[in-house]
Design goal:
By secondary structure, this protein is α+β, with helices and mostly antiparallel strands. It folds into 2 domains: 126 residues, Beta-Lactamase (2-Layer Sandwich); 110 residues, no CATH class. Helices cover 55% and strands 13% of the residues. About 7% of the residues have low confidence.
Length: 314
């Protein structure tokens, strides 16, 4: 019979083994967390690209809801204007409920949580009671007593044109990021018509308003028209994002009448991409980016861009 090992020696062996197993488990968990983060980051990046490429608000709402499906049990997009929230699209409910939602109109005065998100421009968590979100939305989403929902405002250009409404199992950080990413793109597509100053630029093709018979727009081929529309959408999103993400730099540039200096890296990057993507692809292209910089950042006063601003692309 072999002599037994001293008890302290056995304890040390077990402790060393436990420490090794613990380290291996921690390494496996860390690797799993990295893979999860990478997967989530990939989902978010793909969602943001789809949102930015949306051709209209309905397509953008669909993209936003598709992305939100991975981070909430149910989600809806509402358009906010003139004190009313209007249903656009909803996921996580029956088809009849979705059809009912599409025609829904909720006065913000009768839905405190929705109104709070619009007024504060911050995410709001609320009990899904009629007083907070309206009896119609409570019924359509099938909320039970005591349920909670999150409302994420799509805040851009000093306004909140839309709301992302989510319920069930909600991953707040991811949904807030999606709302922030969608905000400038939504605002660009939902922007009011161009001002007279922008429309007066000589020789430019005017989009967003009915084209007059025999206009330059009518002379473009369908393919050229598509490229012009994409170029205009790109310009709106780029200008809106500068205004949203670099608010202090925009304000300083306006005050100093030198926006180009305070935003030079962003403006140069946008100009370079616009030049390569749109001017190179279409001989009739015009500088929609310049128009949007003047309209969105400089409040229709081109002199606010500063003396060093290179001017429209040619």
């Amino acid at each position: 019979m072999l002599p037994s090992a001293p008890l302290p020696g056995i304890r040390q062996i077990l402790e060393n083994h436990a420490s090794q197993v613990s380290a291996e488990i921690e390494a496996l968990l860390a690797d799993a967390r990295r893979r999860d983060r990478s997967q989530v980051a990939g989902q978010l990046n793909q969602a943001v690209r789809r949102i930015r490429l949306a051709a209209d608000l309905d397509e953008m709402a669909a993209a936003l809801l598709d992305a939100s499906a991975g981070f909430a049990s149910g989600a809806a997009v509402l358009r906010a204007a003139a004190g009313v929230a209007r249903g656009v699209r909803i996921r996580g409910v029956s088809d009849p409920a979705a059809e009912k939602f599409a025609g829904l109109e909720i006065p913000l005065a009768a839905a405190a949580a929705l109104a709070g998100a619009v007024e504060t421009r911050d995410p709001v968590s609320a009990v899904t009671s009629p007083a907070e979100i309206s009896s119609q939305l409570t019924e359509i989403a099938g909320h039970a007593a005591g349920d909670r929902a999150w409302i994420f405002p799509l805040a851009a250009d000093d306004r909140v044109p839309a709301l992302l409404y989510c319920w069930g199992t909600v991953e707040i950080a991811a949904l807030e990021l999606l709302a922030q990413a969608a905000a400038p793109a939504w605002s660009a597509l939902d922007a009011p018509p161009k001002t007279a100053a922008a429309r007066a630029a000589a020789g430019l093709v005017q989009l967003g308003t009915p084209a007059a018979a025999g206009s330059a727009w009518d002379s473009l081929s369908p393919e050229e028209q598509k490229i012009h529309l994409r170029a205009q959408r790109f310009a709106r999103v780029e200008a809106a994002e500068m205004r949203l993400r670099q608010t202090e730099a925009v304000q300083a540039g306006r005050a100093q009448r030198d926006l180009y200096r305070t935003l030079r890296s962003s403006i140069d990057a946008a100009r370079d991409k616009f030049q390569r993507t749109y001017f190179a692809a279409c001989p009739t292209m015009v500088d929609y980016l310049h128009l949007e910089l003047v309209r969105t950042l400089a409040n229709d006063d081109a002199e606010l861009l500063g003396q060093d601003y290179p001017g429209p692309l040619v």
